[in-house]
Design a protein that fits this description.
9 strands, five-stranded mixed sheet, alpha+beta
């Protein structure tokens, strides 16, 4: 089983060294790989050599840092498998081929198109993370970050909440089913977020997460550590 790219979202208090945090995270990844909790997945694209310890350049593992108020450290960890990563998609609206305009109706069309094209190859049934707006890079970033939301939560934006429910329902009517073998369960849920954008651009990024949806949160406050 592909344990995927290790992705960390680190929310740290003011004054903490991100350099030291990065070193600690990378050391933890090496140890987890040594103990076979993680499969060695870091392959140099130029030499085709596997590092053997899940360490590559600065982007492998992927680590995002954000400074927050207070004295609590929160680390969100996701293992993004290659199968679901391969079927992620990004659209630039308007899309004349799909008849998708720069509105939520257009967003709906391209998200369903992404599910249709995936044909269950992202280890369906999966979870859809969708970011509307931003630039190409930030849009993909947020489409993955939104996958940390709880499966049973409700989007605080009423329009997005309705669209999330509708997309999940309509995706499950496509008949793709688990692993593309047919059935009524293609998507387990949809999580969406909106972002500001340039007037000239309107991107919609779709990140597909496999059924395992492997993620964990660690919260450190003083000497206390707990996991969610």
């Amino acid at each position: 089983q592909d344990t995927g790219t290790p992705i960390f979202y680190v929310h740290h208090p003011e004054g903490w060294s991100t350099r030291k945090l990065r070193e600690q995270i990378r050391a933890a990844v090496v140890e987890a790989t040594r103990k076979s909790y993680l499969r060695p997945n870091a392959v140099d694209s130029l030499t085709d050599k596997n590092s053997g310890n899940n360490l590559g350049d600065d982007a492998f593992p992927t680590i995002h840092f954000e400074e927050v108020e207070g004295d609590t450290l929160t680390v969100d960890f996701m293992m993004k498998g290659g199968g679901c990563e391969n079927v992620g998609a990004q659209y630039s609206l308007p899309n004349s081929q799909l008849g998708a305009g720069r509105d939520l109706a257009g967003v709906r069309k391209v998200v369903l198109d992404a599910v249709q094209k995936a044909q269950g190859q992202g280890c369906a049934p999966g979870v859809l993370g969708v970011a509307i707006g931003g630039d190409r890079g930030s849009s993909y970033y947020r489409s993955k970050e939104v996958l940390f939301r709880k499966m049973d939560d409700v989007n605080p934006d009423p329009e997005l909440a309705k669209l999330e429910a509708r997309l999940t329902d309509e995706a499950n009517q496509l008949g793709i089913g688990p692993m593309g073998f047919g059935g009524k369960t293609t998507v387990l849920g949809t999580k969406m977020t909106g972002m500001h954008r340039l007037p000239a651009s309107f991107f919609v990024s779709v990140s597909y997460m496999c059924w395992a949806h492997r993620r964990r949160r660690m919260i450190v406050h003083g000497d206390e550590v707990h996991y969610e």
